[in-house]
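Task card 7
Instruction: Convert sequence to structure tokens.
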Amino acid sequence: MTRVFKQSLALITLALLLSACGKKEDTAATSAAPAAAPAAAKAAAAKAAVPGDLGEIEADGMPVLAKKSNCAACHAIDKKMLGPSWTEVATKYKAQGYYEFAGKKYPVEEGLILKVSKGGAGVWGTMPMPANAPAIKDDDIKALVHFVVGLAK
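Output:
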């Protein structure tokens, strides 16, 4: 299979998954509220250290900016979805001390900003991370990555 075909197939799969689960959001939010409390507390602490405006922190711990930017379609604060949990990402790269992007090692935040901006695949499984720039402003990407790194254990 060609790379373009695999990426197209992954994007189609992602679109189908997102459209299929959108209507169940209200009941899931209601039943997950007690479990989300620790994530919300951790997220509020991480937000305090972020320059820029993430918006309010919702009950599940996700900043409003992350939801507006569609990050929450694939990521959650403390559980794996289509992508890894943000806590897993923060913990892994804090411990590692760097982020490798396109064969080059970068300081953690700088490398993650490149990954979120330009996209990529193969680090956390087969689902690709789509490129988010220029659809999401650079300052918003920086604020979200800073927030994520602040979740490290």
